[in-house]
């Protein structure tokens, strides 16, 4: 028997189902198993961009604080894999130096457990949007460009 989203959806329209967080967690797990991954990704992206969602750094910090040491290490390793070498060097004073001979950082559960959630804010604040790059002088002109 296929999962019926139609029976579940009315419970959550308008945010009225927040009374039972345990049930919401079970329902999310069920939906995540049955929904296409592209739909899940789109929904999570929209939720994270919502003006009703706390800042990303705050959510990461809360998630980190509620995680076990293994989950914390996984989060840190994932976040650290996306920062520049210069930022890794600057973070060494804040969260510790996890580099070994210039390699990709690998945080152990023991190391992750020593980090407090507030220390993650530097890792989880997205960079400011960049302005579009100016056109290159040697770029191929548009076929619609006017010739002088």
Structure description:
This protein is mainly alpha-helical. It has two domains: 19-53, no CATH class; 55-123, no CATH class. Helix content is 49%, strand content 0%. The protein contains eight helices and no strands.
In total, the number of strands is: 0
On the 0 to 100 scale, the average pLDDT is 75
Largest sheet: none
Q: What count of structural domains?
A: 2
Global shape: elongated
What is the gyration radius calculated from CA atoms? Answer: 22 Å
Q: Give the number of helices.
A: 8
Percent helix: 40-55%
Order of helices and strands: HHHHHHHH
The helix/strand class is mainly alpha
Strand share of the residues? under 5%
- Termini separation: 68 Å
Please specify the SSE layout and strand pairing.
Layout: H1 5-8, H2 21-34, H3 37-49, H4 56-65, H5 69-80, H6 85-95, H7 109-113, H8 121-124
Features:
148 residues, mainly alpha, 2 domains, 8 helices, disordered C terminus
Give a quick precis of the structure.
This protein is an all-alpha fold.
């Amino acid at each position: 028997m296929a999962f019926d989203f139609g029976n579940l959806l009315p419970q959550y329209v308008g945010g009225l189902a927040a009374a039972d967080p345990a049930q919401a967690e079970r329902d999310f797990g069920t939906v995540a198993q049955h929904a296409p991954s592209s739909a899940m990704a789109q929904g999570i992206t929209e939720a994270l961009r919502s003006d009703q969602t706390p800042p990303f750094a705050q959510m990461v910090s809360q998630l980190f604080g509620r995680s076990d040491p293994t989950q914390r290490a996984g989060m840190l390793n994932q976040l650290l894999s996306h920062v520049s070498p210069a930022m890794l060097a600057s973070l060494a004073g804040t969260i510790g130096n996890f580099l070994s001979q210039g390699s990709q950082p690998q945080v152990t559960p023991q190391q992750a457990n020593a980090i407090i959630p507030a220390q993650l804010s530097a890792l989880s604040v997205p960079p400011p949007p960049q302005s579009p790059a100016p056109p290159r002088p040697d770029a191929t002109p548009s076929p619609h460009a006017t010739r002088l």
